[in-house]
Write a structure and sequence with these properties.
Layout: H1 2-12, H2 15-47, H3 50-78, H4 83-119, H5 123-146, H6 148-153, H7 166-190, H8 200-233, H9 238-255
Length: about 260
């Protein structure tokens, strides 16, 4: 399979190269799942079928449930009146938990196949285990990169509304990309596909880097959606509103350094 060959080459790359590739794949995956959601809505409007839109609705329900649960817990601690901090911390915790799940899932897959390998008795069994491990690790990698929940949650937005996703998404997808790379590196350390692997200290640094980028995204997202709503209500061009708002925000921050 060409996909598996690509994946083996990907795993053998340096960490910075893997992060860059994964970052762009995360954006591509988001746009792909977003487009699939839009396509489902389009077909549902033609065929008047609830069955077609059900996947998008389920994804929206699942995707927002975790955030609402976290938000409720955070607002109890921080205080419901501090809406910005509550939203930001909820976003950070929710998305970083997602990053940890990605890392854990990739690592767990490697661990399970490593155990199978230890119990294998014949060369044929070992070859089959290695082949299946590489195949399913690749599939899991693709699934995490496409990240269908993220794209489908925003399915009610228009394409031009995605301008609102760019500022916080720039950091969010970097955080996700780093977590995917950390998961792949962890899997390769547990059950190697290529000989080189990172130390656990460097893996921990990747997790920390993921948290930092997710945190930056978390503090930007409420601002982005505020600008989005302000522009929509006041009938401002969205791109102009974002450029103007962030220009003033950056100038304000510079003046107070």
């Amino acid at each position: 399979m060409k996909g598996l060959e690509f994946f083996k080459k990907y795993v053998s790359l340096s960490v910075p190269k893997k992060i860059i590739i994964t970052y762009f794949l995360c954006w591509a995956g988001f746009l792909f799942s977003f487009s699939i959601g839009k396509l489902l809505l389009y077909f549902s409007s033609i065929f008047k079928s609830k069955v077609i839109t059900e996947p998008a609705k389920v994804a929206q329900t699942v995707g927002t449930a975790k955030f609402k649960a976290v938000s409720s817990a955070v607002s109890t601690t921080v205080g419901a009146k501090n809406a910005y901090l509550t939203y930001s911390l909820s976003y950070i915790i929710s998305n970083f938990l997602g990053c940890l799940i990605i890392i854990s899932a990739l690592g767990a897959l490697a661990y399970l196949y490593k155990k199978d390998m230890e119990n294998a008795k014949t060369p044929e069994e070992k070859e089959e285990i290695i082949a299946n491990y590489q195949k399913y690790l690749f599939i899991l990698f693709i699934f995490t990169v496409i990240n269908p929940l993220t794209g489908l949650i925003g399915v009610n937005l228009d394409y031009h509304d995605l301008v609102a996703v760019i500022p916080h998404g720039t950091f969010e997808f970097m955080g996700f990309a780093i977590s995917v790379v950390a998961g792949v590196e962890l899997a390769n350390k547990i059950f190697p596909i290529v000989k080189k692997s990172l130390t656990y200290k460097k893996l921990a640094l990747l997790v920390l880097a993921s948290f930092i980028f997710i945190s930056i995204a978390g503090f930007l997202e409420p601002i982005d959606w505020y600008i989005f709503e302000y522009a929509r209500i006041n009938n401002y061009p969205l791109t102009y509103a974002f450029i103007t708002a962030y220009k003033h925000l950056i100038l304000y921050l510079i003046s107070h350094i």
